[in-house]
Amino acid sequence: MKTVKIVSLAFVSTFVLFSCKDAKTSPSEVELISEKEIALAETALEENPNDSYLYVTASTGLSLREYANLQSEKLAVMPYGTRVKVIASEENSTMRIGEIKGGMDEIEFNQKKGFAFNGFLSKYFPPEKGISTKGYAEELKGDFPKVLFTETTGGTASKPTNTETLIIPESEWHEAFYIAQQLFNFPKEFVFPSSKGKEFQVIKEKMFQNNTSTTLSTSSWTSELQITRKDNALTKIECVYKNKGFSKLVTITKEGNKMKISKTEIVE
């Protein structure tokens, strides 16, 4: 949930207004940024309505660097969910990290100015740990009214299904992928896939790749990422989880300039 903090000082007509997404960090991330630094980041100068802000989507945090290259000095690590001010945007893709193309935006964080890879920055604040799809959609709609959420049930009495669908306008494949990964808790080892490759590719979770155990038999328990491509472009990404009596399918597709994320659960 987004929070707003206001600070006023006696005898001085100065108001400090800062609105940000609560940053959720893992134990390893906590070591990277102190409570004092977080407090400073939450206390900024008065906002200009024309200022531009983005959110950190990298689950392990995003480096703020002195110059616009990945080899320059690291000034800070910005935790997942941090809201940062954009000073200047790099519109061209000048580099690639993993399978994500982007450039180095000049930004301000914690009273420091530097550069950060914009492939892990988004106008959509990322989901908090444990938030429901509906709850996340309602939060997004506060800033982005065109976000849509639907929920449907179906199947039969012996095999009921439940499907949640989230539609996010003006977003990219990698943004949708990381939102889905956080919302539906599929394995972190499933990284954002390349747009180049076979028309259909299956990547199994490591624990199932060479498993021969009867307790984790792949015939009854499946965890895999399925990637569909056409002409070296992504057309569908699916995370498939199946266990005895239960299955979950998370599907990501692109419809025009909108990304569609759906989760279907089936009880057998």
What labels would you give this structure?
mainly beta, five-stranded antiparallel beta sheet, SH3 type barrels, 44% strand, 268 residues, disordered N terminus, Alpha-D-Glucose-1,6-Bisphosphate, Chain A, domain 4
In short:
The protein is mainly β and 268 residues long. It contains 5 helices and 18 strands.
Layout of strands and helices, then pairs:
Blueprint: E1 2-9, E2 12-21, H1 27-30, H2 35-41, E3 52-56, E4 62-65, E5 74-78, E6 83-88, E7 95-97, E8 100-102, E9 104-109, E10 112-117, E11 121-122, H3 133-143, E12 148-155, E13 160-169, H4 173-184, E14 200-204, H5 206-209, E15 222-229, E16 234-243, E17 246-255, E18 258-267
Antiparallel strand pairs: 1-2, 3-6, 3-11, 4-5, 6-9, 7-8, 9-10, 12-13, 13-18, 14-15, 15-16, 16-17, 17-18
Can you tell me about this structure?
With about 270 residues, the chain is mostly beta strands. The chain folds into two domains: about 1-120, SH3 Domains (SH3 type barrels), CATH 2.30.30; about 135-265, Alpha-D-Glucose-1,6-Bisphosphate, Chain A, domain 4 (2-Layer Sandwich). The chain is built from five helices and 18 strands. It has helices at about 25-30, 35-40, 135-145, 175-185, 205-210, and strands at about 1-10, 10-20, 50-55, 60-65, 75-80, 85-90, 95, 100, 105-110, 110-115, 120, 150-155, 160-170, 200-205, 220-230, 235-245, 245-255, 260-265. It has a seven-stranded antiparallel beta sheet with strand order 12-13-18-17-16-15-14. A five-stranded antiparallel beta sheet has the order 10-9-6-3-11, with no helix packed on it. Strands 1-2 form a two-stranded antiparallel sheet. Strand 4 and strand 5 form a beta hairpin. It is globular, with a radius of gyration of 21 Å. The two termini are about 35 Å apart.
